[in-house]
Amino acid sequence: MRDIDRIRREITQFQLSDAVQLEAFRLQFLSKKSELQGLLGAIKSVAPEERKNFGQQVNELKQLALQVFEEHKVCIEDAALDVQGGGIDLTRPAESLTLGSMHPISIVMNEVIDIFERIGFSTVSGPDIDDDWHVFSALNFAEEHPARDMQDTFFVDVHPDVVLRTHTSSLQVRTMETQKPPIRVVCPGRVFRNEAITSRAHCIFHQVEGLYIAENVSFAEMKQTLLYFSQQMFGAETKIRLRPSFFPFTEPSAEMDISCNICGGKGCSLCKHTGWVEILGCGMVDPNVLENCGIDNQRYTGYAFGLGIERMAMLKYKTSDIRLYFENDVRFLQQFTAATQ
Ligand code: PHE
């Protein structure tokens, strides 16, 4: 019984911090030749009245030795893995990452830009806050044009000449002022108009405008480019139609409709049962605008167009309220995770 007490002390006090010590422990307490094994063998030779108590104590000792051995084995093996893998268990299955999603406006904007980049347009960006010249005057807006009115335009109070741009045509002016033809650019960006917020209109929205200036650019070329764009964006069966319109900076000007991609042209509430939905404004750049920007209007002609991204997104994702794109409700945005990847 004295031996049992001593061995118990030896087990509990044994220094166990690495694999070598672990092996020494195993030899001393758990191998066939160990003292403890000898005690187990000796149970049967103990006097019968003491055998039960002795046997129980020796068996408990064996359990203790096994338990100490197993616990330290796990710790020592983990520590060894830590050294090899810098604390990382490389065999552990990876946890899946929760991905965010791109905003639908960014998705559609990138798609529009991609389509035009494929046919040689490059992308330019510029300031959201600009001066009257770049937003209006250079673009042939008459002094009294209603778009310059407080009703439509946000002015920056401290400076009456400075406005939040109402279209990204201001970037077309900036491009014409700094580049020589041939010019082929798209100008994406955020624009601002002082409008009441409803399901169809917002005071902030996004545009991509395009500009092509070279020698002998024709209206037919513009039409073909816009047909290509529409079919890339909305499907090969998409049709377009141009309606005469007016913009101060283009002459002639047009608005372009595409065949309704929801009802396929048969008529539905989105196309107000006409089979057509308007998606952009376009036209041949007015010679006055070329002159204002220092481009020889005898030699060069060009076309321009401008489209609204929210409009495009509403058609593509079949949503009927523009406000969804600004509220940033995560339940709405999460639906675009797949489109992001
Ligand atoms: N700037 C116009 C708008 O914001 C769109 C447009 C661009 C029309 C170029 C014709 C040519 O509505």
Poorly predicted segments: none
Instruction: Give the CATH H-level superfamily of the largest domain.
Output: Bira Bifunctional Protein, Domain 2
The CATH architecture name of the largest domain reads 2-Layer Sandwich
Distance linking N and C termini: 72 Å
Per DSSP, the total helix count is 13
What is the makeup of the main sheet?
A: 7 strands, mixed
Total domain units: 2
Short description:
With 341 residues, the protein is of the alpha+beta class. The protein has 13 helices and nine strands. The strands form two sheets. It has a seven-stranded mixed beta sheet with strand order 1-4-5-9-8-7-6, sandwiched between helices.
Task: Explain this structure.
- The protein is of the alpha+beta class and 341 residues long.
- The chain folds into 2 domains: 2-84; 104-340, BirA Bifunctional Protein, domain 2, CATH 3.30.930.
- Helices cover 42% and strands 19% of the residues.
- The chain is built from 13 helices and 9 strands.
- A 7-stranded mixed sheet has the order 1-4-5-9-8-7-6, sandwiched between helices. Strands 2-3 form a two-stranded antiparallel sheet.
- Strand 6 and strand 7 (250-259) form a beta hairpin.
- Helix 2 (19-30) packs antiparallel against helix 4 and helix 3 (35-42) packs antiparallel against helix 4 (48-85).
- The protein is rod-shaped, with a radius of gyration of 39 Å.
- The two termini are 72 Å apart.
- The model has no long low-confidence stretch (mean pLDDT 91).
- It binds phenylalanine.
